[in-house]
Specification:
The chain is of the alpha/beta class. The protein is built from ten helices and eleven strands.
Length: 319
């Protein structure tokens, strides 16, 4: 689990004990200031030996940091942490329009997209249902929600190109696929969280509006994470003529904003894999508040050990 937000405290009034840290630090500075050449005090020398001043400063600093961390732990800190979800349904919608044949991404957009998508399959928690949707001029559910990762990879590998681009239809089919998810046997009346991950390189030129589809996703509480895949220099050859197929970012950004998802961009297969990794983490975890006292207690212990090692190296006793 990973801390992802600022601290809160269950007992913030205990933080007043932090005033001990600057108080002790001030006293130490005053004592050190008295130990100047020509004004040696034997009693102070025994308390704060001068043979290794940097070791002394280091040890005292570590002790003060240990005290500060201990006070923070005493105040019972809390933070938002990432907790893995037990179940969810993810729909991976992949654009298979002719523009995905462009070779600006090696070896071409569709092949690279397939390879990265198969890696994404392995990134999802085992209990997540995954559905595959493909879209070009029309959209279809090529694999209904399932935990069978092998079937998902085979469905991805079997994707083939088609004419036109109907992003809106791809979203509507993704929402339809989410409705096919099997219920949780332990909680049959509770729908699992759902999300759509949609990869495309173009803009809608047939079918229903992608904006309307994004609003439909929002109404159902389904965020659409969009990925703009490709470069501005992409092209395909049709009937002996070269046709430019630059990536369209505006439509995908609009879909993500309306639905409550996020928009990403990738220009290489490696970039796409990183995007998928980010999305897998985002949809695979819930944010929950939890007490993290033990973390600061551990930090306090670490600095205490460091301070103790410094004292031992000085062969000195604490006052």
């Amino acid at each position: 689990m990973t801390v992802i937000c600022e601290l809160g405290f269950l007992a913030p009034q205990r933080l007043w004990w932090l005033l001990l840290v600057p108080t002790i630090a001030g006293l130490y500075i005053l004592l050190s200031a008295r130990l100047v050449p020509g004004r040696r005090n034997r009693r102070l020398d025994r308390l704060l030996p001068l043979e290794s001043p940097w070791k002394r400063h280091f040890s005292v600093s570590a002790a003060l940091l240990s005290l500060a961390a201990l006070v923070v732990a005493y105040a019972m800190p809390t933070a938002y942490i990432d907790v893995p979800r037990d179940r969810a349904t993810i729909v991976l919608a992949i654009d298979v329009s002719r523009s995905m044949e462009a070779s600006d991404v090696s070896p071409n957009r569709l092949t690279a997209a397939k390879q990265a998508a198969e890696s994404f399959v392995d990134m999802l928690p085992a209990g997540f249902n995954l559905a595959i949707v493909s879209f070009s001029g029309t959209a279809s559910v090529v694999m209904p929600p399932s935990t069978d990762r092998g079937a998902a990879k085979r469905a991805i590998d079997a994707l083939s190109l088609g004419p036109s681009t109907a992003i809106g239809e791809g979203i509507y089919q993704s929402l339809y696929a989410l409705g096919m998810a099997p219920p949780d046997p332990n909680h049959p009346d509770d729908p699992a969280p759902g999300a759509v991950v949609l990869l495309s390189d173009g803009a809608t030129n047939v079918g229903r509006s992608s904006s309307d589809a994004a609003h439909a996703a929002k109404d159902q509480g389904v965020p659409v994470y969009t990925i703009a895949f490709g470069t501005p220099n992409g092209y395909v050859v049709e009937n002996g003529r070269r046709a430019s197929v630059p990536v369209n970012h505006a439509e995908l950004l609009n879909i993500a904003k309306i639905s409550g998802g996020k928009k990403f961009s990738a220009t290489t297969e490696q970039d796409l894999s990183e995007v998928y990794r980010t999305i897998a983490h985002s949809i695979g975890y819930d944010k929950q508040t939890a007490e993290i006292t033990e973390r600061f207690a551990g930090i306090a212990l670490l600095f205490a050990v460091i301070a103790g090692a410094g004292v031992i190296s000085l062969a000195a006793r604490w006052p």
